[in-house]
């Protein structure tokens, strides 16, 4: 298997768009994008989320950051899913991403 790849195009401002594409190490390709609804530096990001393959299934992600003793507390909320299956699949995907995030920013 080849290593996973990631490409991101980000216009991080209220009303700006983003697109993220990645290929997992098993070769499966994914692409998602949306619009930033709220951008408050060092505090909050709110953006729509839709997979390229199902653009009509738009959901909403809110990430809040708060100082927490020696670090930062990240509160991650993803809502407005098409159905429970979509919710459960996103939960697995985001959990995998967040589990890797700590080692990346440490």
Poorly predicted regions: none
- Integer average pLDDT: 86
How would you spell out the order of helices and strands?
Answer: EEEEEEH
The share of residues in extended strands comes to: over 45%
Shape: globular
- Percent helix, as a range, is 10-25%
**Terminus-to-terminus distance:** 27 Å
Structural class computed from helices and strand pairing: alpha+beta
Enumerate the strands of the largest sheet in spatial order, edge to edge or round the barrel.
1-2-3-4-5-6
Largest sheet: 6 strands, antiparallel
| Number of helical elements | 1
Please count the beta strands (DSSP E, at least 2 residues each): 6
How many whole angstroms does the radius of gyration measure? 15 Å
Descriptive terms for the model:
single chain, alpha+beta, six-stranded antiparallel sheet, globular
What would you note in describing this structure?
By secondary structure, the protein is an alpha+beta fold. 21% of the residues lie in helices and 49% in strands. The protein contains one helix and six strands; from the N terminus they run ββββββα. The protein has one helix spanning 84-105, and strands at residues 5-10, 17-23, 29-40, 44-51, 59-68, 71-79. The chain has a six-stranded antiparallel beta sheet, with no helix packed on it. The relative contact order is 0.12. The model has no long low-confidence stretch (mean pLDDT 86).
């Amino acid at each position: 298997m080849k290593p996973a790849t990631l490409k991101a195009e980000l216009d991080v401002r209220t009303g700006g768009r983003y697109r993220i594409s990645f290929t997992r190490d098993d070769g499966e390709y994914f692409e998602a994008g949306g619009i930033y609804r709220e951008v408050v530096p060092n505090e909050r990001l709110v953006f729509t989320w839709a997979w390229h393959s199902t653009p009509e299934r738009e959901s909403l992600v809110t990430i809040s950051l708060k100082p927490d003793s020696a670090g930062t507390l990240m509160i991650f909320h993803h809502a407005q899913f098409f159905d429970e299956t979509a919710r459960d699949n996103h939960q697995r995907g985001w959990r995998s991403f967040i589990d890797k995030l700590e080692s990346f920013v440490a």
